[in-house]
Write a structure and sequence with these properties.
elongated, 66% helix, 13 helices, mainly alpha, 2 domains
């Protein structure tokens, strides 16, 4: 594989296309220099959060007691725009890095060869077009626009006096900051989240197409995945996205517990569902490789079984004093007997999914960790430590 091909892969990206990326380029916040992501994260966080502080301050809703929840107490929106949004921005670079490295490794390890370059080129161009689809961008904007009145209605029925609405008895009019939140800040965050959903679909499509190429897998590879175990290594391409959504999810639950007097136990099923969903979005693209892995494992078991059988037959002939007609590669002695047995065990234990238990635990931990502080609403620190000790001993 020539160096030009790998140099071209350095430009392979599923985040640097589409109308929104072009808009960011025009505004000068999507530069590719070393600190480009930091600049973009700061600008977008400032653009979504700072006007809320200023506008709520003008109406006296940032601090004080005009409303039950002034702006400074609304930790959910602080988390949205000062933590979650920058994380979604930074996730783009790690996502593209994993995309490039995984693709390069497929060719470096000869799982894909030059014969597959034309087919791969078609797949690559297709997913790039999909990632920047104008139709999808318009659909996302339509969803966001439809959601604006629904979100406002949900906020009103909580019967909570909050900085989003003008103070006063039974006032349902939006404050200046509430208008900005509804028309600018929240739609921008929602756009990033929905855009990441589409990128996941594009990533899934990319893996689906790759899995249908003639992959040259090695059943005896020590990663127990035919040589593509690297596809399931952590940190995964959606690690930061997972963490960001988990933080947002936790902040929303905490807000309801603090301001609406709801109980954490009421969200047990939802939390369990979120954990399942977090695992699913990480392993679902890897499930596409079950068919080629199964096919190579099955073939490997038959081929290596025949090879081991012939080797062991020669081992018996040598040490039991029988004549050997044609010696197999590798001396039929005790050490080679162990090597062949180990190789066959590797083939026999080959997984049908390029992921292991350690990776699964990592994914669950990433999803659960931001939710651990929620336990403080139900248990004191001493109670929690006592329960942990009880579980251990």
């Amino acid at each position: 594989m020539n160096e030009k091909f790998f140099a071209d892969l350095d430009e392979f990206s599923l985040t640097k296309s589409g109308l929104f990326h072009k808009l960011q380029l025009r505004l000068g916040i999507a530069n590719t220099f070393k600190y480009g992501n930091a600049k973009r994260a700061i600008v977008l966080a400032g653009f979504t959060w700072l006007p809320l502080l200023i506008l709520s301050g003008i109406q006296g809703l940032a601090f004080g007691d005009q409303v039950q929840v002034p702006f400074w107490k609304d930790f959910t929106n602080h988390a949205r725009f000062l933590i979650v949004l920058p994380m979604l921005v930074y996730a783009e670079s790690s996502f593209d890095f994993r995309l490039k490295e995984a693709t390069k490794q497929l060719f470096r390890s000869a799982i894909l060869t030059e014969k597959e370059l034309p087919a791969f080129g078609v797949i690559k161009n297709r997913v790039i077009r999909l990632s920047g689809s104008i139709l999808v961008t318009l659909l996302i904007l339509g969803i966001i626009g439809t959601n604006i009145p629904l979100r406002l209605h949900a906020a009103k029925i909580n019967n909570l006096s909050i900085w989003m609405f003008s103070p006063g008895d039974n006032s349902t009019g939006l404050s200046f900051a509430g208008i900005y939140l509804s028309l600018v800040s929240m739609p921008l965050l929602q756009f990033f989240i929905l855009q990441w959903m589409w990128r996941w679909m594009t990533w899934f499509h990319y893996f689906r197409k790759l899995s249908r190429l003639p992959l040259r897998l090695n059943p005896a590879h020590p990663d127990l995945a035919g040589g593509i175990g690297f596809l399931g290594f952590q940190p995964g391409p959606f690690l930061l996205v997972n963490s960001a959504i988990s933080i947002l999810f936790s902040a929303i639950i905490a807000e309801r517990i603090v301001f609406l007097d709801e109980k954490l136990s009421a969200y047990s099923l939802i939390i369990a569902g979120f954990m399942f969903f977090s695992v699913l979005i990480n392993i679902l693209p890897l499930l596409l490789f079950i068919k080629p892995l199964f096919r190579h494992r099955q073939r490997g078991i038959f081929e290596y079984s025949a090879l081991v059988q012939e080797h062991h037959r020669q081992f018996d002939d040598k040490w039991l004093g029988k004549p050997i007609k044609e010696q197999i590669r590798g001396f039929p002695d005790a050490s080679s007997l162990t090597d062949f047995n180990t190789t066959f065990d590797t083939v026999n234990n080959m997984r049908l999914i390029p992921i292991n238990l350690k990776t699964m635990i990592t994914i669950v931990f990433i999803a659960v960790f931001p939710m651990l502080p929620l336990l403080a609403f139900e248990y004191s620190l001493v109670d929690l430590m006592f329960k942990v000790v009880q579980m251990l001993f």
